[in-house]
Amino acid sequence: MDKRLRAILCGLLGAALFAPAVQEVPQAQPVRPDQMELVKKVSVPANAGWVDTGIDVNQGDEYSFQASGEISLQRGNPSAGCGPAGIDLMSVQQPIPNHNLGSLIGKVAQLISVRKDEDTGEEIHDEVAEYFFIGAENDLVAPLKGRLYLGVNEDLYKDNGGEFTVLVFRRPSGR
Questions:
Q1: Has this prediction a pTM greater than 0.85?
Q2: Distance in angstroms (rounded) separating the CA atoms of residues 3 and 99
Q3: Which CA distances in Å does 19 have to 7, 12, 103, 123?
Q4: What is the CATH number of the domain that holds 138?
Q5: How many domains does the chain have?
Q6: Is residue 175 part of a domain?
Q7: How confident is the chain (175 residues) per 10-residue block, as mean pLDDT?
Q8: Cβ(44)–Cβ(164) below 8 Å
Q9: Number of C-alpha atoms within 13 angstroms, CB side, residue 56?
């Protein structure tokens, strides 16, 4: 294992001891595939940050996710690879500190405002968001109305490689 990854992992292990509890988003009751309709197939590159699925959800909508693929949390390092369940490490710097590093996660975000940083000129999106774990497969009841985003449970993603492929299903209204 190279020195950089070892330092990162040691720091993550130490920080994991002090990770605050994160409230989980309510999960849907498990559903059979024949009760769901495929909404979209989404590619989630490991180095992209949050990926906008283009799916707007309403509070209470029921979704199911199935993910596959392999990513690397450090391109070129064979011990940094994982599937949608992630690597059995956790840190407070991850978007969801109590789930595996590199796991597939999602968020439902409701945009409040868009403003520009006066120093950098960068657009800043103020939003209300609820984060949730997906892993290889999970069900969700949308916690609020907003846009669905998918990402990797890591805060340093520029050196990542690979991608997850995610099938997003929705329970049709009235079922």
A1: no
A2: 24
A3: 18, 10, 17, 30
A4: 2.60.120.430
A5: 1
A6: no
A7: 45 39 46 74 96 96 97 88 92 88 95 90 89 96 96 93 97 69
A8: yes
A9: 3
